[in-house]
Each structure stands twice: as C-alpha cells, then as structure tokens.
Fold this sequence. Notes:
extended, four-stranded mixed β-sheet, three-stranded antiparallel β-sheet
Amino acid sequence: MPILASLPGLNLLSSLPSNPPQNDTTSATPSPSPPIPIPKYPPPRSRNPKTNVPRSNPALSIPHRRSNYRKPVQKGVISTDGDRCVIVGENGVSYKLPGAPFEFQYSYSETPNAEPIAIREPAYLPFAPPTMPRPWTGKAPLKKSKKNIPLFDSFNPPPPGKKGVKHVEKPGPFPFGKYPKEGKTREEILGEPLKKWEIKMLVKPLLSYNRQVNLGRDGLTHNMLDLIHTHWKRRRVCKIKCKGVPTVDMDNVCRHIEEKTGGKIIHRVGGVVYLFRGRNYNYRTRPQYPVMLWKPATPVYPKLIQEAPEGLTKAEADEFRKKGKSLLPICTLAKNGVYASLVKDVRDAFEECPLVKIDCKGLQPSDYKKIGAKLKELVPCVLLSFDDEQILMWRGRDWKSMYGDTSSTLVRVKADISSGIDNSAKSSDDSGTPDAQRVVSSPKMMSLWRRAIESNKALLLEELALGPDSLLEKVEEFEGMSLAIEHSCEALVLSSEDGSSSSSSAEFKGGSYSEDENDIYSSDDIIDDEDYDDDSFAEVDPPIPLGSLPVDKIAERLRRESK
C-alpha cells in the first residue's frame, strides 16, 4: 500500500468514470447456449371451436330439451326407417316395429287423451338399429364361451339345493293330479282362476317383501315390461308399488298392466298391486321386447288453462279466479303420495261449493298439471288456474249431483206431535195450513233415506199426523217385519227322481226359527275338512246385537270359500 500511494497520478479515493467505455461488439464473444434446449409447445386449443365435428349417428345430435325446436305434426306416420316407423295418433307418439304385438310407447298409462300438436325433437326411434347385434359399449365383444349354458326353463327349474343358484319357484299352484302345460294365449297361460286360499298363500309372503317394481310419475313405461318378466323368472307374483301422479286413476294403471304384461292382478291395497304371472307361465317362451335406449322428449299438447273456458266468458272466469284466491283448499297433496281418493274428494266438495281448490306446494309443475288433466276427465270439471302451486277448478254448467235430484225435498212436520188421540184429527186438518213447519233435507241425506227404505231398514209413514199410540203400533209392526226379513233365507227346491219336489225354508214362529241344515245347503255347498284351514272359524266376526244367529255368518263364509 505505501508503494501504491507513492506512485504519481494515482488517487485511491477517486470515483468511477461517469461514462463507461462502450463494448466492442465485433470483438465480443457469443454467450454459450443453455445445456437443455427450450421445448416448443403447440398453440393452445380454443375451448369453443367454431367448427362442429359431424357425427355419423343422427340420434346423437338431438337438440337439447330446452331448445326452441318445434315441429308441427298431424295424425299419421311422421317418420319411417324401412319397416320401422314413428306414428302420431290418439295415444301420442308411438313406435311401430315389425313383428311387435302392439305399438310401443314410452309410457302406456300416462299418455294424455288429446292428440299432440308438435314434437320437441326430430322423429327418431329410441331403439337400437336392427343391424347392430349388441349395444355399443366402446369395447370389443367378448369371445364366445366354450360352456353350453342352457336357456332358463320354468317348467324344469334347477333343484333347490344346487350351489350358486338362487331360489326359483315352480309353476303353479296346481290342484292334485295336474301339471303345467305350454300355453300361447293369455287365458291358457293364466289357467283356472285362483281360489281365495291360493291368493292368500301367494300374497302373504310378499307383504313385507322389499323386492318390488317402483312405478313413479311416468307410469307404466316400456322398459318396465321386461323388468316385470325378470321378477316373474323366480317368483310367481310381482309386487308393484305405485306413487305419485298415476295413483289418481289406479283403475287405468291396473288395466294397462294387465293388458301389456298378460298377468292377472290378484290383490290391491292402496297403491300396491300384486301381479300374478299365471299357472302355466314359462320364462323361456315369454314375449321379448327391445329396450328403449333413451327417454323421448314429451310432445307439445294443447293448453289446459284457457282465458275463457267452455261455458264461461272471460269476465266470469276472471271473477272465479279472484274468488278462488280467498278459497281454502280441500286438501294438500304430499310429494310421492297416493292420491287414490282424490277424485271422490273433489266430487264431494262440488256438492257444497261450485269452486274447489287443491294445494300442491312442493310438487313439480309438471306433476300437478298432470293431476289437473286427470281430474278434468275423471270428475269432470273445468280447470281455471294453476297459480301459486294450486289447482283451481269449477264444476261446470252441466254438473249433476251424485245423489240424484238436487232440488230440496220439503218434508212437513208438525210442531206438537205429542198431543193425544183427540188432537190427531185437529192436527190432520191443520196440516195444509201455512203454519206447518218445513224441514229442508240435503240430497245426500235423501239418498241415505231412500237406500234404507229399499233395504227395509226404515219405514216411510204416509200419515204424517199420528198420535203416540198409533205411532207405537206402527213401530212394533215394523220391528217384527224387519227382524223376519233379516233372518229369512231363500228357499232351496230339490227335485227328486219321481218328480216330486221338497222345499225347505226358515220359518219364523213366535220369535224362534226352525231350520234344517241338511235341506238348506246342497252337497256342492258343503265343504270337506281338507278344503279349508283350521283357522276358518277364527275369522268369524264377533256376535252382533241381540236377534242375530252366528250360524248364518259361518254358513255364508263357508259358501264364499267354496267358490
């Protein structure tokens, strides 16, 4: 450091030059290349390409259900594919295939009666093409198995103790000495009608059985037909549980189930149906239907709510809708409930009020609109509004009461009927005076009175003005007559070989009855001990009020079981 300080012209504390010298580019060496080259990636693809790739199958390019696709259609064939075609008719959109026993539909029980006016998608058949041997799953087909698996035959089921085989019920039930036989028609497959003890034997194990077919808002769909036959493969009875919209008209659901499957409904409780396959059913010879690959879009139907419904002007309809807002609903429908008594409830409500409202909060709009369409046909009635998730209905101008004449029946009743015999003549003379009281009876009450009079459980007094003694005499006479009619039975005439006939009947003598059971019941009505169970008498109703014979109930029950 001392040596450096002694050098002339050297200042150790001087600053760096303000303008550094420029680098000579000609003499500078190039920078070395990186050891790993930088990869060159292709430009990123756009998520929404402008060009759509064409698809080979037109069914895969069906417009979205929420699109505005509307194509007006008329009754007849709207699309064909060789022997297969799409038809529009009274049952909506149906599909006709060669060799099919009937025209296929997505839903057989929930199709409106009105003809569709437009479709929401192009008319394609929702079935696999006939040239495809199996549905395409994206994988190559498996190799043919070397094992020769026999077809399932209900007439020759596997033994019960076979390993790896589930329980399979045999055909039947059959009486002693009879065996299953091949049948082609529905009557031949069902066989003889089931007896009551056979129905009880078939239904009782399924009451707490959870293996069932669930029938929802779409009703009896096409793919359910094959599902029911799958249940019939191992059991004689298929349990079907119905909930939601179809339960409004259970008779319609049961009719379509029997028509399309060929079975017989042997028991029905609420929305649960027990479907019997038949005594001679064979799974091997069952009808096989193609599977529907997707749910077709629902067609466009005419509007249910009109501004001026039939029989009303627009002003009258608006007035009814205004009154309906303050009207209390007769019931509240629960989601996925059973509405079997809804039609009867609406009819009973129309007896008291011309407007009826049903609360449908929590239900989907399509559900309560379908319920309104069913009530319009079954009640019948006029739909006014679906506002606020409520169905508002009017009974219409052509409405008729269920109990006959709706005009009020006037019955004249005297105020003082407890007067003596001496006053009876005076009261009869005053019966035509305007002072007599009048009682108005409803149509329902008159219907009940008429039914009681026809069954001899009530007596119509032609003489309105009766004294106490005359009235008591009438009551005693009617009481004896009603008891005689209640315990009398029809006479059975038996013809002998020589032409003579003997008759037996129950005679009423002084309040006692003399009957001969051997004469009343024929040999056909008497049942052997083998035909009924030991608990038959356990089901007899408890003794009814004084004056009845329990033997009458027992004989009637045995006669019903023998049929």
